[in-house]
Description:
Low-confidence stretches: none
Amino acid sequence: MSQPAYIQLGDDNLRAKAQKAAQAMSCCTLCPRECRVNRNEGETGFCRTGKLALVSSYNAHFGEEAPLVGQNGSGTIFFTHCNLRCNFCQNFEISHLGQGVEVTGRQLADIMLHLQEEGCHNINFVTPSHVVPQILAATLLAARNGLSIPLVYNTGGYDKVETLALLDGVIDIYMPDFKFWDNAVAEKTCQAPDYREVACAALREMYRQVGDLEMDENNLARRGLLVRHLVLPGGLAGTREVMRFIAQEISKRTYVNIMPQYRPCGLAGQVAELARSLSPNTFRAAVQAAIEEGVTRLDNRRPIFFKK
Length: 308
């Protein structure tokens, strides 16, 4: 089995990336919000995160895609806050209300090593876009102390290409959401009127770095791109257009999880169309649209719908 990317990169190169990312926090433009605050001095912008990352929870997670879970689970680390803050977020307490505690780089590295010791198949950074410097610093420390499993970048898709470039040679598996095609919907739900353009550029860069999802002899993901797409009521996610983009401009071999679990959470009621749960017919139509557009490498877990 090949070594994870960050080990092949080497200590010196990983340290240089960590230092460059840390310096960038002095006038932070690491994400598309470009708040330009000095996070190294404790100032915070849209993501409400200063010099230290906040962690809400970490554990072996068995609800992720099969190529990540295997027998022992994906080692998820849920970061507090977010650079999107969708009004319907299913982790509202974490992303909006700030549930979590600050951790040092050493503490974050220790969490990564603990998850590896528990047998997790990978380290899964959940909502990492605003804490790339902290992740790089912790990965450097963890690698020096024996971390040797793949890293997963589990993001909302609102990522700058320049910041993703700092992760080139570090991240093994990119798992972005592609949430919306219509920028008006993105503006209404997460104040991101440029979401489509940002997500398209981000997916292109992620694919350039890691290519299609590759499995090992145990059918576990070891490298590549895995895209998530949450189907929204009323067609608000623009599923057909998203799948057309993936098929035509990324790869028809892209592994895609079309997710059926939308339900009104948080402030979803602010948008009339989002104040209801997803219907089985809407989900089935979304899957059919993906297939018609040429995206057929789909996560095959069966959705469960409950009657009201």
